[in-house]
Design a protein that fits this description.
With about 240 residues, the chain is an alpha/beta fold. Helices cover about 50% and strands about 15% of the residues. The strands form 2 sheets. It has a 5-stranded parallel beta sheet with strand order 2-6-1-7-8, with helices on both faces. The chain has a 3-stranded antiparallel beta sheet with strand order 3-4-5, with helices on one face. The radius of gyration is 17 Å and the shape is globular. About 40% of the residues are buried.
């Protein structure tokens, strides 16, 4: 007999640029799951920090302010089929979906997520969002910390060059100011190092996670592989 469907949770972890967000959104739509983008939550905190004058090079003295921002934040996801992406993220009632997808927000999100009190402030929110309905969550510590008992766990990987190429294409398509390939590659390398070596909830593959290298796979192929595994477990 399959798992109780009302508590069914899929955890998708892995570093930036492996296709987690795109695959998770597609899987949510295909399988009727709620999509909880946990990385976006940290980007929201980064955005609110920037709104208050803090930036990615913040000093240790700014940490108490950042913790306060995380504890006071009112974050939620809503679906809007008329917009792309349809999964929208709101901070204190304001739609900031596009605003949090900049290189600076990415770097700052990595730094604020390393603060234990920030992670603690968002932990219950992530769990409540995931348990509200059959859900698929993406991040860096979903299968190891947030939902270690998730019914299905994936860990997506890809070469750093492929990830930089994807990020460059994404930025060019958005019309944003575009750094060079080398700059993006270095940003990804630095973020990987920070995410995997932080003291609190570092990026790592859960022992029971299914690893999937997406370097030479199309999005459709990644989604098909993941959907097949999820559907077998749900049966």
């Amino acid at each position: 007999m399959g798992p109780r469907i009302e508590s069914f949770i899929v955890a998708v972890d892995g570093p930036a640029g492996t296709g987690k967000s795109s695959a998770t959104r597609r899987l949510a739509d295909t399988l009727g799951l709620i999509h909880v983008d946990t990385g976006a939550l940290y980007r929201c905190i980064a955005y609110q920090c920037a709104e208050q004058g803090l930036h990615s090079d913040f000093t240790e003295g700014a940490v108490p302010q950042i913790i306060g921002i995380a504890r006071d934040a009112k974050l939620e996801f809503k679906r809007n089929p008329r917009k792309n992406p349809s999964n929208r993220v709101f901070a204190n009632g304001k739609d900031i979906t596009e605003s949090i997808r900049t290189p600076e927000m990415s770097m700052m999100a990595s730094r604020v997520s390393a603060i234990p009190e920030v992670r603690s402030a968002l932990l219950d929110l992530q769990r409540n969002l995931g348990r509200s309905a059959p859900s698929i969550l993406e991040g860096r510590d979903i299968g190891t910390v947030i939902f270690p008992d998730a019914q299905v766990k994936f860990f997506l990987t890809a070469s750093i060059d492929e990830r930089a190429k994807r990020r460059l294409a994404e930025l060019e398509a958005s019309g944003a100011d575009t750094p060079s390939f080398e700059e993006i590659r270095e940003q990804i390398r630095v973020r990987d190092q920070g995410d995997s070596t932080r003291a609190t909830a570092p990026l790592r593959k859960a022992e029971d996670a299914i690893e999937l290298n997406t370097s030479n796979l199309t999005l459709d192929e990644v989604v098909a592989k993941m959907a097949s595994i999820i559907q077998k477990v749900m049966e």
